[in-house]
Design brief:
Elements: E1 2-7, H1 23-26, E2 30-32, E3 37-41, H2 48-59, H3 82-87, E4 88-92, E5 99-103, H4 107-116, H5 119-123, H6 129-132, H7 143-154, E6 159-164, H8 172-188, E7 192-197, H9 201-204, E8 210-213, E9 220-221, H10 228-238, H11 240-248
Parallel strand pairs: 3-7, 3-8, 5-6, 6-7
Antiparallel strand pairs: 1-2, 1-4, 8-9
The protein binds adenosine-5'-triphosphate and magnesium ion.
């Protein structure tokens, strides 16, 4: 399990520019992970994807998502993260080396790559790639269906799984189904670990998860009921007309 993430401050080359300039990253010293499921939350632009992507590249995953074996091409755009990758230290108690990086916005790219790729087949001879991914191209599934297929096939095992806003693909009932799938995966696979960035109050409800907020320019632990998604949804559902009246007041 990944136990600790540290920013080695003497390895930081440039404090002024992205990615270290993001306030939550600049103030990072050490994060201790104390649960096999950890959520990153925070306002848009607070640095969640920046840290997830840096963890993914450090661990050796494809930069745009995927496993260690595929989709690892470097472009100028996705190299922006490298100064942070070089300054991070990841401490594991047991390192499986396995896992998957799933970014909501690059599900399409991962699907394309899987359609073309025979690498997986080479790694697992006898299993045709089409049947490995459910016999049907991920491109002709809906966004949510493709997400669930990928999750079933790539995340139901031991390893480190990094998911960036998985709710982007999922209806509320599918988000609840994902809670059940996560729970079952953690029960079945003792070396499975998830780090998930989210704005979803449903996903955050996973029992005994560690929740790290990136708000206020520092990464800090926060209780479920104190998180912004939970507070805002609760207020809105409890007093929709009051909130709308306030919002639309001329
Ligand atoms: N390649 C890049 N070059 C320069 N700045 C970037 C780059 N990628 C992200 N940023 C900036 O870094 C900050 C953190 O972005 P990041 O994508 O990590 O936020 P986030 O917490 O994931 O937000 P969201 O909830 O919207 O996904 C933002 O201000 C963003 O504009
Ligand atoms: Mg993000």
């Amino acid at each position: 399990m990944l136990k600790k993430v540290s920013l080695l401050r003497d390895r930081v080359e440039d404090w002024q520019n992205y990615p270290i300039s993001v306030p939550s990253i600049r103030s990072l010293e050490e994060i201790e992970l104390n649960s096999r499921i950890c959520f990153f939350i925070g306002e848009n632009g607070s640095g969640k994807s920046t840290l997830i992507e840096a963890l993914a590249v450090h661990y050796g995953f494809g930069r745009e998502g995927g496993t260690r074996n595929f989709f690892n091409s470097s472009t100028e755009a996705n190299q922006a993260i490298d100064p942070l990758v070089r300054a991070l230290r990841l401490s594991f108690d047991r390192r499986t080396g396995a896992g998957f990086f799933l970014r909501a916005e690059s599900l399409f790219n991962v699907a394309s790559h899987i359609d073309q790729s025979d690498e997986e087949q080479a790694a697992d001879p006898g299993v045709p790639i089409a049947s490995f991914y459910g016999d049907k191209s991920l491109h002709i599934r809906s966004h949510g269906e493709a997400f669930f297929t990928l999750f079933e096939l790539k995340c139901r095992r031991n390893g480190l799984f990094l998911l960036d806003e998985p709710e982007a693909a999922l209806s509320p009932s599918r988000q609840i189904a994902l809670l059940a799938l996560l729970h079952d995966t953690l029960q079945t696979f003792q070396d499975a670990q998830f780090i998930i960035s989210t704005h979803s109050p449903l996903l955050l409800g996973f029992p005994d998860a560690q929740i790290l907020s990136f708000d206020g320019g520092r990464i800090h632990e926060i209780a479920y009921q104190d998180t912004e998604p939970v507070q805002i949804y609760r207020r809105f559902l409890n007093d929709r007309s009051g909130i709308l009246m306030e919002l639309f007041r001329p």
